[in-house]
Design goal:
The chain is built from 14 helices and 19 strands. The chain is α+β, with helices and mostly antiparallel strands and 619 residues long. The chain folds into three domains: 250 residues, Beta-Lactamase, CATH 3.30.450.20; 107 residues, Helix Hairpins (Orthogonal Bundle); 153 residues, Heat Shock Protein 90. 29% of the residues are buried.
Length: 619
């Protein structure tokens, strides 16, 4: 992948990740902010709803106090006319004059009297001079005595005829301050559409959003809606419907407010429910306000979309600025890359143009200085290489010439030395014969050196070619080589054992394999123990043939084994002549085996034996 592409991907990745992270954070922040503001707004909204109920309660307290202090209450025919006027004037549902034992003296809507007003939560206040207000529940049979119309308002499903009364109780006192009775006024909250509509109008202004009410208000008797602005799909008020068990448990049982999103009929509202208590502190109902969640969802969506759009614009601008800023750097780096490739291809005169004064520009300038040094070094190396090639060519020419001339001369000398030893020029005895033998040994040593240098010359000139054929290893290579060294083995009383099968056939160059065996078998004869044994062995598997030459003797130091096959490395001394080898024989063996596709190594137990092993691949 090109660096330009990598940089582009990194920039894109950074801004994409940054955009996603900021988008997620801002969505979370907006959601948290809206939820917090919604909870605060619900708290304020329900306070406004309570304010309407408190205003109605204070009105009831004022009416009750007025009636209790009015002289007309006793002057009129048992005060019924006064009570009736108060009921009509202030739209009251309950107006009673009670004795201290709760016996009804007079009702505003009826001449019936004498019964005891049965309201258990108020029993603790009969005969006391306390002013009391709030809400309580009135049983169906007691509510029926106050009028059939009131009882009808409590007959919807789920209410069981029970009425929830918002009331005020005012004591009647004589001049001495003794309680003579009570005035009880109240408003039935069941079906109190006026109260919930007033709350709806004050808090939500009866606004609509997408044909839905922005807010709704409900008074619950227990878990049942008894007064509400929530509408059913048919347009009727949702009286008699119930609240969820979760809300009922927290508000009515745990006596704690509940705030959250709630499904109200068919729409989700952000809602708050708070408990309503009777004078004994027992929760008897709930007050609910809710705002349409769709408003906040649309608001959140618009805010998120706006912020996301702005963020996308800022990100795009930042990305463009980053890209434009990086483009100059990338152009300089691209020029560096191109120039580097030119130098790699041999154009050492190539240089990069410095287009900036920043770190990349400094890099380009340093690169040019480095290129200058590389060019100077290359020119120097070329000059030295040319001189070395000339010297090496002269060396190889001289080596080939010298080895060729020496080989011819030495061969002639060796031939004549052998004739002298055999007595062809007369019988030699004593010191004279011993001298001729020493001459023959020296000539043999020189012949070995000459042969090795001749092979080295052919290797380094590249003239040595491997001409492979099917070779009978014993007949074509091993047997002729052993015969060539038979005198050497005989002189040192050494035994040669060949365990290689006569039928073993390998693929290789017969002449080069003879050179390999000549070196290995010759070394075994020179460095092996006098009177010892030489083993020539072979092993074959599906992949390769493993060949070896083993000899008894002093062996090889383990530390010397890794260097044996390096050029001019010499460690052992010929026991018969006291001379070290040329250090070329094993090097040549390694080169020849390698050109056959094989491997070569040495093994030894110092003081006991040495073995040289090489492999040839099986075709």
């Amino acid at each position: 992948m090109k660096l330009r592409t990598k940089v582009g991907l990194v920039i894109v990745s950074v801004f994409v990740v940054l955009f996603v992270v900021i988008a997620v954070l801002q969505v979370g922040w907006v959601s948290t902010l809206i939820i917090r503001q919604t909870n605060e707004r619900m708290t304020l909204t329900i306070r406004s709803a309570w304010q309407v109920l408190d205003d109605q309660r204070r009105l009831l307290e004022t009416v009750a106090a007025f009636l209790a202090e009015s002289e007309e209450l006793t002057a009129d025919k048992q005060g019924r006319a006064l009570l009736e006027r108060a009921r009509e004037r202030w739209s009251l549902d309950l107006v009673l004059w009670l004795k201290p034992d709760a016996t009804v003296v007079q009702r505003a809507q009826s001449d019936e009297a004498g019964d005891r007003f049965n309201a258990p939560p108020l029993e603790r206040f009969w005969g006391h001079d306390e002013r009391v207000s709030g809400t309580f529940l009135l049983a169906p049979e007691s509510l029926a005595r106050e009028g059939a119309a009131l009882a009808a308002r409590c007959s919807t499903e789920g209410q069981n005829g029970t009425g929830m009364i918002l009331f005020a109780l005012e004591p009647l006192l004589d001049a001495a301050g003794n309680v003579q009775g009570h005035i009880l006024v109240g408003t039935l909250l069941n079906g109190a559409t006026g109260i919930v509509d007033e709350v709806q109008g004050n808090v939500f202004s009866n606004r609509l959003y997408k044909d839905r009410r922005v807010g709704t208000v409900t008074i619950f008797l227990g878990t049942v809606r008894v007064a509400t602005t929530v509408l059913l799909p048919n347009g009727e008020r949702a009286l008699g419907t119930t609240v969820s068990p979760e809300v009922a448990h927290q508000v009515l049982e745990k006596r704690e407010p509940w705030t959250g999103r709630a499904l109200v009929v068919n729409d989700w509202y952000l809602s708050r429910y708070e408990p309503m208590f009777d004078p004994t502190g027992t929760p008897i109902g709930m007050l609910y306000v809710g705002e349409l969640e769709l408003i906040y969802e649309d608001m959140k969506r618009e805010v998120v979309l706006t912020i996301a759009t702005l963020l996308a614009i800022v990100t795009a601008l930042a990305f463009l600025a980053s890209y434009l800023g990086a483009r100059g750097v990338m152009r300089q780096i691209t020029a560096l890359d191109k120039t580097t490739q030119q130098i790699a291809q041999g154009d050492f005169a190539a240089r990069v143009t410095v287009n900036s004064r920043d770190e990349v520009g400094d890099l380009a300038a340093s690169f040019n200085r480095m290129a200058d040094q590389i060019e100077d070094g290359h020119n120097e190396i070329v000059a030295k290489k040319s001189a070395l090639e000339t010297a090496n060519r002269n060396y190889l020419d001289m080596l080939g010439f010298v080895t060729h001339e020496l080989r011819s001369t030495i061969s002639a000398a060796m031939f004549n030395a052998e004739l002298l030893k055999d007595g062809s020029y007369g019988k030699l005895e004593g010191d004279l014969r011993e001298g001729v033998e020493l001459i023959a040994q020296s000539l043999a040593y020189l012949d070995e050196i000459t042969n090795n240098y001749l092979q080295l010359s052919r290797l380094e000139r590249g003239e040595l070619q491997v001409i492979k054929s099917r070779v009978k290893l014993v007949a074509d290579v091993i047997a002729p080589t052993v015969r060539a060294h038979s005198r050497q083995f005989a002189e040192r009383s050494m035994t040669v054992e060949v365990t290689v099968p006569d039928s073993l056939v390998v693929t290789g160059d017969v002449n080069l394999l003879r050179v390999v065996y000549d070196n290995l078998i010759g070394n075994a004869g020179k460095y092996g123990r006098t009177g010892g044994t030489v083993l020539i062995q072979a092993d074959r598997n599906d992949k390769e043939v493993t060949l070896s030459v083993w000899n008894e003797g002093k062996g090889i130091n383990r530390d010397h084994l890794p260097q044996l096959f390096q050029k001019f490395e010499r460690f052992d001394v010929d026991e018969t002549t006291g001379r070290k080898g040329t250090g070329l024989g094993l090097f040549i063996v390694k080169q020849l085996v390698g050109r056959h596709g094989g491997r070569v190594w040495a093994e030894s137990m110092e003081g006991h034996w040495a073995r040289f092993v090489f492999t040839l691949p099986v075709d």
